Amino acid sequence: MRKPSGKKAKTNTKTTNTETSVARALRVWEDDPGTGVEVSLDSRPDPSATPLAYRFPAPAPEPSDDNTSFAFRYWSAAAALRRGADFWAPRVPSGEWKLGPVLPVLLDKGEDLNAFYDRQALNFFHGTSPDGVVFSGASPDIVCHEMGHAILDSVKPQLFDAGSQEAAAFHESFGDMSAILSDLQLPSLRAALLQDTGGHVSRNSRLSRLAEQLGAAIRAQAPDAVDRDCLRNASNSFSYADPSTLPSVAPASQLSSEAHSFSRVFTGAFLDALGAMLRAYAADPATPTADELANVSLHIRDILMEAIANAPVVSNFMAQVATGMVAASASLNAAYPDILKEAFTRRAIISLQTSVMATSRHHASVAAMTESSARSLSGIPLDQVALPAAQYGINEPLMVATPSHPRRVLATAAQPDLTPADPMSAVSAATQFVDDLFARGRVDLGEMETRKSVIRLGGRLKTHKLVREKGALTLRRILFDCGLCQQ
Ligand SMILES: [Zn+2]
């Protein structure tokens, strides 16, 4: 094995008094090994703390200041995962993962430039880069992205199997939002960010650049597969387009229907909104403080989770969540609804009509009437529909979970001419989604593997599999990865 890729450490000196005045018990990566910034923590995190406990199979090593050591990677992951779960926990009503009270964390499952959540564990790997060996589990950005998948799976489990490009992309966006918001729970990072961006936190920064080190490792193999300065940059200008109109695969500079690529639309709007909300909330908009940023991170968390809880799983899921965020924000700050409307309409995630409706009295009354029933959506499974599968070389129907929740409010995205986009039917959305999966070779064919007629394309990592349930051939999701491998 090549030498682990370490960085000459820069220690973030803008730590709080609490962090600087106590014994430095632990040094860990602040956001990503690629930035090379370490932070000293005053106590060791407890991965097994509840709610939202983790289990690391390996015994906890003694902390080490050697940033190429297993101990440094272990504590970087443990600190980030604890911080992230503690941040989300107040908004996870069950207090548990989808799996149960404890989620295993497998820090190094072998060689791959990858990481994934599969409802059994958070899984991380190591791989080579020109700078040496990189470990996906060493990056707070990556571990909090994967943990984000697990959080969303706990509160909206129907999204896991939903045959929907937007649902899959939103899951990826939530992972990136989880990384961003978890980063912001570190006082030292907040202070550095405000200084680096002059208080404009939606600008390109260490916060917006996710997974710099793994991004560099992948870029060395595939120069256009990731952004120029990281894996994915939340500071971007991508606008919504119906995913069925986008190419299945595209270079990182363009939008495709692939979930990680398409997720950047929502994440970009989210970061825009975060920046504007901070300026609206700050006592002095020109110089927001780290404490004000901490409060706004809690506000946007609550707004996002409220909207997700109420959003039906339908083909234009992003418009549903965005509309819900506008409506949910009014109770926190009178300036927030207009900020969120602007962030989402500028990127066409919601149409102008939906933007107006989201804060109308009529919508508020409809939302209030349907809130209790909307919450009960959490218990409603998606319709399983038999789709024709002859185009994949399969001579029997394929059962797929369609994005089929009832719509109580017509929230729409915008078309390029700014008129409202009629949402696709649940069956059409699922058909598009399955076409994409087969085109990218992301389906484990299971018993169909031996059938000569079945199409087989590329795709190293399988996200879905064909299984037989009650006699019917059924498509099930296996995992969400973090987009580290080439699609
Ligand atoms: Zn992911």
Taking all Cα atoms into account, the compactness measure Rg is 22 Å
> How many domains in all?
2
The share of residues in extended strands comes to 5-15%
Query: Largest sheet, if any?
Result: 5 strands, mixed
Count of helical segments? 14
Distance between the terminal alpha carbons, to the nearest Å?
Answer: 26 Å
Bound small-molecule species: zinc ion
Structural class: alpha/beta
Question: How would the blueprint of this fold be written?
Answer:
Elements: E1 10-11, H1 17-21, E2 26-29, E3 37-41, E4 53-55, H2 70-88, E5 102-106, E6 115-117, E7 122-124, E8 126-129, E9 132-135, H3 140-155, H4 158-161, H5 165-183, H6 187-197, E10 209-210, H7 212-221, E11 232-233, H8 259-281, H9 290-310, H10 317-329, H11 336-346, H12 352-358, H13 361-375, E12 384-387, E13 398-401, H14 426-439, E14 443-444, E15 464-469, E16 472-477, E17 480-481
Parallel strand pairs: 1-3, 4-5, 5-7, 14-15
Antiparallel strand pairs: 2-3, 6-7, 6-17, 8-9, 10-11, 12-13, 15-16
Helix pairs in contact: 2-3, 2-5, 3-5, 5-8, 6-9, 8-9, 8-11, 9-10, 10-11, 11-12
This protein binds zinc ion.
